[in-house]
User: Fold this.
Amino acid sequence: MSTVSLKDVYKDYFKIGAAVNNRCLDNDKQLILKHFSSVTCEYEMKFAGLRRRDLTFDFANADKIYNFAIENGIEVRGHNFVWHQGIYPDVFEDLSKQRLLQLLQEQMKTAGERYSKISSWDVLNEAISDDWNGWLRDTVWLRKLGDDYFMTVYRMARRLLPDKKLVYNDFNEYEAPKRKNMIKLVNLLKAEGLIDAIGMQCHINIKTCTADALKRAFEDFSKLGLPIHVTEIDVGLPEMDDPTPLSQMSAEQIEKQATLYQQLFAIMREYSEIIESATLWGVRDDQSWLNNFHFKRDCTALLFDKNGDPTEAFYRITQF
Assistant:
């Protein structure tokens, strides 16, 4: 284990967080305690993470993570209330608008009260369409609650969670068309005082993302006058559409990955006055969601490899 602590290196810039699950807690408790000042439940506080298929609550998994964090003085970010995934799609399709709103209200009120020390929540996650010419993603929430459902969701959250920081969270924010629609959504919420921070996921890769694109994204969002939470950082190798095994990644690709990490964190330090937290989407490589995406093969995406040892990217972002 490295003798340098991530959270100590960045204590004068922003909180350093990680997405965790119960297996991660069992295997990597010491890594979490040493390096991270914040955690996000990877799945355990999403709708289906807190409920069984019959829609009754099951708090066991979320409680384990929350209690560990609070007992050790680690901040918890709430993630999330409304997403097109993390639900039971067939069950939701049969719900009336009234019943869906009732369930959402129950979800917000129950989670807000049970996990009372959480100060910020990703209220709405990934609502913008991936079609650059589109607007909102076609989801059960949109179909059931209407074209302005995002306003309904945030009004409810503001009413039920008046002392919590409400965040909008999305990915591909370094792509200008996606970012334009994110800014449109944020401005609509901001006009009614319904949003307190912007969540930039920063799932990035060396194939489609550059330092210049990241810099433009942070600059554009900085003009909105809201704090930024960088919520789901990773730099995946191999890329999602590349079936090449990790063992065949070239030294040049590994170098590019480390460099992009270095550039991202340098940009975040530049904007640290408005960045409140920066969260890695996982602790070590064997837990990355990318291992189970598309080609289902080992990836390297995080700051610690599958054995828990620091990667080259770790040293790049801690030595500056």
Remarks:
- The chain has one domain: 6-282.
- The domain at 6-282 is CATH 3.20.20.80 (TIM Barrel).
- The mean pLDDT is 96.
